[in-house]
Write a structure and sequence with these properties.
- The protein is mostly helical and 418 residues long.
- It has five domains: 82 residues, no CATH class; 120 residues, no CATH class; 47 residues, no CATH class; 113 residues, no CATH class; 40 residues.
- It contains 21 helices and two strands.
- It has a two-stranded antiparallel ribbon.
- Helix 17 packs across helix 18.
- The chain is elongated.
- 13% of the residues are buried.
Length: 418
């Protein structure tokens, strides 16, 4: 809306218009400019042109009503247009029930905090309408401290302070997920005074809230706002490339390993022990692994070797013990997991001695040969181990059967000789 006239004629109240001889002459001299937009549905002039908006009223207009405004300002869109041309009405949006978008639908509207930071107050109507909340909520469902105009003054010094102050608004509808966040590492940091710890709106947005999994890559890209280095590693990994380049929904995103709201500190002993189960949720899925020609027995083979047995034992007894034995991420990486035959893979034959050396200091190039990896022994792979395993499978039952027969015959002879 354009600026209101500066003429002194409207300094009088409407009640004294008839008695004022000065008013007509001043209006004739300066002229009251027409309203530069349609007034259909927007006839509450002071909702936009109040004392605290961009189009501030002069001091001598204090106390004037909407009727006074339209008494001087015509509703012709442009002065040169014929009076018969109807003004164009703005598009109707759900949030117009409380007239919020009359002001907040204007680009450039902002609020400045005492530290100089600015908060954009512009809400694009189409974006809000298309959001998950667009057809379910009105503005005051979230901004419940704003019940009238002019709005109460915001006594917050910074943009982040304002967002932290609005943090608990979401729990009115999303109480279950809000409760989950109370056990997360993010909330632990926030409760210790870290104002930069993520809040609901940092991940989901404020007015343009959409489904977090459409597309699925949005989830990891959202996490990258704070965890840029991790995302960079993830984007070059076998998982990240499949997600970003191929839009593959089979590969894990950040929340598959770290969860959405109950985000655990990954530096704890409990998370380290649980990482094996995280990997097994995909790598023990026979149908999924067949799709990519990967053995579904990798976790089983791990739990049968000396690393996995120790980890499983500790996991059953005390999850707070930090195990030094290798878990999946020690060998394959965390965010930068590579294809096993990639030149950069830490488990490639030429690299695996160095990988083992991280725990087994002084490991020689032949050291990994004592480990079968995740492969099951077969006639073509680890032939000697395969042969010994079958020898024991035949020999041990033969010995047990022979011993049992010997005992039975000895017992029978003892009975018959009496």
């Amino acid at each position: 809306m354009g600026k209101l006239p500066r003429c002194a004629a409207v300094a009088a109240t409407m009640a004294s218009l008839l008695a004022s001889a000065m008013l007509p002459s001043l209006i004739e001299a300066d002229g009251a400019p027409p309203v530069p937009h349609g007034i259909s549905g927007m006839d509450k002039c002071l909702a936009c042109h109040g004392t605290q908006t961009l189009n501030t009223l002069p001091a001598n207009h204090t106390g004037f009503s909407n009727d006074i405004c339209l008494g001087c300002h015509t509703s012709t869109t442009v002065a040169s247009k014929p009076a018969t041309t109807p003004p164009a009405a703005p598009p109707v949006t759900p949030s117009q029930v409380d007239n919020c978008l009359s002001c907040h639908g204007q680009p450039g509207l902002s609020m400045t905090f005492t530290n100089g930071e600015k908060l954009s107050l512009y809400v694009e109507p189409q974006v809000f309408t298309a959001s998950i909340h667009g057809e379910k909520l009105v503005c005051m469902d979230c901004h419940n401290s704003i019940v009238a105009y002019p709005h109460p003054k915001v006594e917050i010094s910074s943009l982040r302070g304002y967002r932290v102050g609005q943090y608990e608004v979401c729990k009115k509808c999303h109480f279950v997920n809000y409760t989950k966040t109370l056990d997360s590492i993010h909330y632990a940091l926030l409760s210790k005074g870290d104002a930069n710890a993520p809040l609901c709106t940092d991940c989901h947005g404020a007015h343009a809230v959409t489904s977090p999994a459409k597309p699925r890559s949005t989830i990891s890209q959202t996490c990258s706002r704070c965890h840029e280095n991790m995302f960079t590693q993830y984007a070059t990994s076998i998982h990240g490339k499949a997600l970003i380049e191929q839009d593959n929904y089979d590969v894990p995103v950040c929340t598959d390993c770290h969860s959405s709201h109950t985000i655990e500190d990954p530096r704890t002993a409990a998370f380290r022990l649980g990482s094996v189960e995280l990997c097994s949720s995909c790598h023990s899925n026979e149908k999924l692994m067949q799709k990519y020609d990967i053995s579904p027995n990798v976790v089983k083979s791990y739990l049968e070797d000396f690393h996995g047995r120790t980890v499983a034992l500790v996991d059953r007894q005390n999850k707070d013990i930090w195990v030094r034995e290798a878990v999946c991420t020690d060998c394959h990486g965390v965010h930068d997991i590579q294809k096993v035959d990639s030149p950069n893979s830490p488990v490639l034959k030429t690299n695996i001695a160095a990988t083992c050396g991280k725990c087994h200091e002084g490991a020689t190039p032949n050291f990994p040969a004592a480990w079968l990896s995740h492969y099951e022994p077969s006639p073509t792979r680890n032939t000697l181990v395969y042969a010994v395993r079958w020898l024991y499978r035949i020999f041990i039952p033969f010995m047990l059967v022979g011993l049992s027969v010997h005992l039975l015959l000895d017992f029978w002879r003892t009975i018959t000789n009496r």
